[in-house]
Fold this protein.
Amino acid sequence: MIVGKIGNHEAVSGGGTPFITMICMDMRRIVAVLVEEAEQQIHDQVWKLAPSDRALALEAEAGLRDVVGLPDVQEALPQIKRLERLRESLAVLAISLARTHGRLAWFLSGALNALEPILRWRALPADHGGTFGTVLPSPEDYTEAEDAVRRLQDALAHITAKPVDLGSERPAQQVNGG
């Protein structure tokens, strides 16, 4: 039973205390803040990726790229396939999180937290009975989530790129002008 609205989200009651079925904060914004923090920590050399973390992050980036494609490809898919691929992106992140600790784990945990609303989405209408708190996302919700996953892909590729020390990279110098 709908008991009110907060913004575009309905507050419902299952007989007990009303709750919000979905508060979908802007996933893109949350991911952007997360990525900005990661890039700053790497720049400040607070976060130094170990080779094993670099390899795992690249593996996660490739996994995300495999499940969420370009916008035109994703938008052509039926909603049930789009949801399936978004759920697979959560699985890629969760498996990567299980394999690491420290800052990479914290980053992956933040990414999973940002994408958490996907867990409450369903692609099928409810014919009878309850839906266990799941909701039908709008086409805009799918696009937002897919954009957030693409941003994570880009961020993982960027933060795992080996930094080049321009001070030590010098062309071969010839002695005595010859």
User: Anything to note?
Assistant: The two ends are 86 Å apart (CA to CA). Helices lie at 27-43, 51-67, 71-76, 79-98, 103-114, 139-159.
